[in-house]
TrEMBL record:
This protein's record includes keyword Transmembrane: yes
Protein name (record): Adenosylcobinamide-GDP ribazoletransferase
GO cellular component: plasma membrane
Cofactor(s) for this UniProt protein: Mg(2+)
Enzyme Commission number: 2.7.8.26
Top-rank taxon: Archaea
Function per UniProt: Joins adenosylcobinamide-GDP and alpha-ribazole to generate adenosylcobalamin (Ado-cobalamin). Also synthesizes adenosylcobalamin 5'-phosphate from adenosylcobinamide-GDP and alpha-ribazole 5'-phosphate.
Gene: cobS
Catalysed reactions, as listed in the record: alpha-ribazole 5'-phosphate + adenosylcob(III)inamide-GDP = adenosylcob(III)alamin 5'-phosphate + GMP + H(+); alpha-ribazole + adenosylcob(III)inamide-GDP = adenosylcob(III)alamin + GMP + H(+)
Annotated GO MF terms: adenosylcobinamide-GDP ribazoletransferase activity; cobalamin 5'-phosphate synthase activity
Keyword check for Endoplasmic reticulum: no
Source species of the chain: Methanorbis rubei
Length: 243
């Protein structure tokens, strides 16, 4: 329980009392999907309530759902996505890309990638019925955190930071553990769509892992956080395409 509490304090803004020892989570980074079950449940509330009360405006529900998904995490993963955008759009050497990504200023690359992913996520949600919106964001959050767990186990860092600290305490077998933690989602209806979402999240991980190695020489916390946002968008797209 200490590990889960430390995880939730790291990944959410939930008021959980005195800060736990970060090591409790860092040594068990495969637990990331547990945070996804929590954030996904919170983000699913607008869709569930709308379905229960017979409210059918998917545009409003999609906006509220996405807002909750970002708010519950304190926009930390969104910040990583924006930083990644600056790094990817920078021209020049690997060092210049890293400098652009780690700079605190927000550039055109950050705004572009942020807008693209958020628009895809919102549009995908808005194309679904309220109850399916709830299911899609729930799966998106769990699979997104699974991607973060994969990066923690397999994403060799390019500099010192949170990613290097967690990676140093992780084992490669944690990649298997974190995927197993996401498997209960297959108990939900629409198992084929859930499977498509699972495959999409894995695809996002491998593509982002490859791009990060080519552009930056490895992974950092921004890449890991961006993985959550991009994977969520990809999973939601699978729901939009398949349902």
């Amino acid at each position: 329980m200490k590990s889960v509490r430390a995880l939730l304090q790291f990944t959410t803004i939930l008021p959980l009392g005195t800060p736990s020892d970060f090591d409790q989570f860092a040594r068990r980074s495969w637990l990331y999907p547990v945070a996804g079950y929590v954030t996904g449940a919170v983000a699913a509330l607008p869709g569930i309530l709308a379905w229960y009360f017979g409210y059918s405006n998917s545009l409003v529900i999609a906006a509220l759902t996405l807002a909750l998904a970002i708010f519950i995490t304190g926009a930390n993963h969104l910040d990583g996505l924006l930083d990644l955008g600056d790094g990817l759009m920078a021209h020049g050497s690997r060092e210049k890309r890293i400098t652009a990504m780690t700079d605190r200023n927000i550039g055109a690359g950050a705004l572009s990638l942020g807008m693209i992913i958020l628009l895809i996520t919102f549009t995908g949600l808005a194309s679904l019925s309220p109850l399916v919106i709830a299911m899609a964001v729930f799966c998106g959050e769990v699979f997104g955190k699974m991607v973060m767990g994969l990066f923690s186990a397999l994403g060799k860092p390019f500099h010192e930071g949170i990613q290097s600290y967690i990676y140093g305490l992780s084992k490669r077998r944690f990649a298997v553990y974190t995927c197993i933690l996401a498997l209960p989602l297959f108990l939900l209806p629409e198992k084929i769509v859930v499977a498509a979402g699972f495959a999409a999240a894995l695809f996002v991980f491998f593509v982002l892992w490859y791009v990060a190695r080519r552009c930056f020489g490895g992974v950092n916390g921004d890449v890991t956080g961006a993985g959550n946002e991009i994977a969520r968008a990809a999973v939601i797209l699978m729901f939009a395409f398949c349902i």
